[in-house]
Task: structure prediction
Amino acid sequence: MQKQTANKIKKEVYWRCKKCGDEIYWNTHKSMTYCKCGALGVDGCEFYLRLIGNEADREEIKRQKKI
Ligand SMILES: [Zn+2]
Result:
């Protein structure tokens, strides 16, 4: 069990809808963003992250950004 605090999100994290395959970047700048089919909603900024929808329908994708 990992608990992430909102202010520690520095990675490139995307949320992918398993139904339509749409990917939403975790930081939506406080605007609720839905995937194509509407099963997954993401509302995030540096301070909080809100996920709408069924947990079984989404997966977390982490991408390391190389500078
Ligand atoms: Zn979808």
Residues 9-63 form one domain.
